[in-house]
Amino acid sequence: MKRFLLPLLLVWTGVTAQDAEVFKPDSIKKELKAIQIHHKLKVDGVLNDEEWKLAPSSPHFTQIEPFQGNQPNHHTEVKVLYNNHFLYFGIISKDSLGKKAIRATDFKRDFNALQHDLVMLSFDGFNDQRNAISLGTNAYGVQRDLLSFDDLYYDMDWDGLWRVRTSRSDSGWVAEIAIPWQTLRYPKTADSIQNWGVNIYRNRRLTNEVSALSAFPRSFTAMRMNYAGKLTNLKPPPPTSNIRFQPYFLTSYDHYSGYDTSVKPEETNFKVGGEMKWAINTNTIFDLTINTDFAQADADRQVNNVSRFSVFFPERRQFFLENASLFGVGISRNPDESGGNMRIQPFFSRRIGLDDKGNPIPIEIGSRLVYRSDKRNFGAILMRQKELGDSPATNFFVGRFSENFGKQNRVGGLLTLKNRPDGTNLVSTVDAFFRLSDTHSLNTLVSQSSSSITGKNGMTAYAQYFFVNNQFKIWWTQSIVTKDYDPELGFVSRNDVVATTPGIFWWYRGKRLPFKKWLRAWEPSIFPEFYHQASTGKLIERVWTIYPIWLNLQSGAYLGYSINPTYQYLTESFEPLGVKIGAGEYNYVRHQVYASTDPSRVLNLQVSYSGGSYFNGYLDGADATLQFAPMPHVSLSGRFNRNHFSKVGEKQTTTNVDLYSIEGRFALNPRLQLIGFYQRNSENSSQNYNIRFSWEYQPLSYIYLVFNQQSFNPYMERVRVENHAIAKISYLKQF
């Protein structure tokens, strides 16, 4: 540890001198004036309604990437109109190459921003300079939307009710957007005129040029709302209680073969349910779900895991994704950004309605109440899970409260309760976040669990410091999880551990950077991880992850190399992919190479290779994904993953474990799509198919046809096959 502390302090000394590059928000905000009209516009992406001539053009945008503060090479013009029902935006993205320059690889909602031209709008209706509603589109009218809180937590899969149409020409592309007032959040005031915080950014993907209406440091995002401009002259209708009903009808057919007689060979079911969303006022939203169904949610992809710890699968179900940031306290970022391989979440929504293998358990009824304001936030979730097989009927409660104070500080609490006939699991948590300055922040948490089933109590705690400017990202995370900490409604990557996980990233774009026409930044980094057993104090794991090479190209391609000297003390054996490794001490070194072509091109490739010693043997791992997208209507990708073990484990095993994947997306337009994927895993001879047809026949109203097949051989005796066919229709009505 001491060998790491000295270079960290030396880097810190240099960092503080360069902090000035993170400039302060402009005291004079750029203004975008909205004009009131009295007619409904035809939203077609052409901007040929006469009313558009009344709207003044926006101020000039400022370049964020690659040269912060410069004028953009490709200009963007924004106009704003509104009536009693909609707020309209007309965005003209000019381009000297016209539609030849446009990049888009698919029609997936919430598309990958690295693969598309896009424009993104962020609104701060309450002017608290903390929270934002963000709506975006690519050049083909595919929607991307999210909620942002303190530019720190994000509801990435929130889907708002709004409409966009686009057009493409030899001079660029145009987006015409209509946003119902009910989708936005703003106060009820005595003033007839309101001014909101707003920012708009554009990525011209061919050259990766990012520009924005109001400039912000490139190490932040456009959702850091204290850097936003102003949307002026708004006269929105007074916010009223609005209600959205979304009932559904579903029919399914299930067929099983290879199982014992306790499983019905085939079954047909019908199901009716739905959801209601009631915006009680501008701050408070109540959600109700009955006979909850997630047939349309993306299925989990298989992962071949060679680590000692469980794979963390993200939440994909829409009901739980909304307002997830309010309840999602804990260490949950990527391993290279905060807590190493530690993950501590007192609440993890996949513990509701899913078993440990990701299979659905029916939810009978559930509700959620959320209140947000510039002063405080609170929320509650109450769910009832039906009995299924060995899983008894279970009640779940989650309560959350947080108080905002100062510029961007917060302290809060979280309570989770899981109640079954055989006992109760209770977890209570206190957390805090302090934005010490634009570049310094501190995140902390203390959590305690108790279980009446086991009679055991446990706790976890961490403190996480961050420094971020345009040259460096530095963090230090110190965490502890006791042996008996057991959040049955949460997720922890490991127990009985004290973890020390510091790290440094350096974004170098200086004068000595060569090949600037192609190379945007050299980004070396180092983030060691030290794990001691909490109950004994013994060192059980030490990993140095060192990236001497990480090159980000102007095109979005990258090339990287890392080396990982590793020490492991296994207190018990474990079995990665069927290879048993015994308890004991191990020292080994692994190497990784990462590379990607431009991800926005018609044909793009991502590859990674890892090799070197692995416990008492050797392991070579290769992973390659090739995507072919000749047009955004058609996207095909194939992935191959191989792990080659050589003389590993107690039996000196040498073997290959392969995982193949094929995925296709075919779209007539952003609202009518056919998606399918296939996976084959040699570890357990499993094969999975998933085919999903979706038609959004009106905004947020869908028809789904889903077919799933799973075949596997768990005991190498006989193949088990499951076939599931599902048809579902939902209808959204907003009052």
Explain what the structure shows.
This protein has 735 residues and is mainly beta. 3% of the residues lie in helices and 53% in strands. The chain is built from three helices and 41 strands. The protein has a 24-stranded antiparallel barrel. A hairpin with a 4-residue loop joins β35 and β36 (653-669). The longest helix is centred in the first third of the chain and has 16 residues, at 2-17. The radius of gyration is 26 Å and the shape is globular. Keywords: Signal.
Task: Summarize the model shown.
3% of the residues lie in helices and 53% in strands.
Inertia-based shape: globular
Major β-sheet, in short? 24 strands, antiparallel, barrel
What's the total count of β strands?
A: 41
Task: Give the termini separation.
Answer: 60 Å
Helix content: under 10%
Taking all Cα atoms into account, the compactness measure Rg is 26 Å
Low-confidence stretches: 1-20, 333-339
Structural class: mainly beta
Query: What is the arithmetic mean of pLDDT?
Result: 88
Percentage of residues in DSSP E strands: over 45%
Helix run count: 3
Pfam families: CBM9_1 (PF06452), DUF5916 (PF19313)
Organism: Flectobacillus longus
InterPro entries: Carb-bd_dom_fam9, DUF5916
Keywords: Signal
Q: Which descriptors would you attach to this protein?
A:
735 residues; mainly beta; 24-stranded antiparallel beta barrel; 13-stranded mixed beta sheet; 41 strands; globular; disordered N terminus
List the helices and strands and how they pair.
Layout: H1 2-17, E1 31-36, E2 62-65, E3 76-82, E4 86-94, E5 118-124, E6 131-138, E7 143-149, E8 153-155, E9 163-169, E10 172-180, E11 194-204, E12 209-212, E13 229-234, E14 242-257, E15 266-279, E16 284-292, H2 318-321, H3 324-327, E17 344-345, E18 363-372, E19 376-385, E20 394-405, E21 409-420, E22 423-435, E23 440-451, E24 457-468, E25 472-481, E26 491-492, E27 497-506, E28 519-522, E29 525-533, E30 539-553, E31 558-570, E32 584-596, E33 603-614, E34 617-631, E35 634-648, E36 653-669, E37 672-681, E38 686-698, E39 701-712, E40 720-730, E41 733-734
Parallel strand pairs: 1-3, 1-13
Antiparallel strand pairs: 2-12, 3-4, 4-10, 5-6, 5-11, 6-7, 7-8, 9-10, 11-12, 11-13, 14-15, 14-40, 14-41, 15-16, 16-18, 17-26, 18-19, 19-20, 20-21, 21-22, 22-23, 23-24, 24-25, 25-27, 27-29, 28-30, 29-30, 30-31, 31-32, 32-33, 33-34, 34-35, 35-36, 36-37, 37-38, 38-39, 39-40
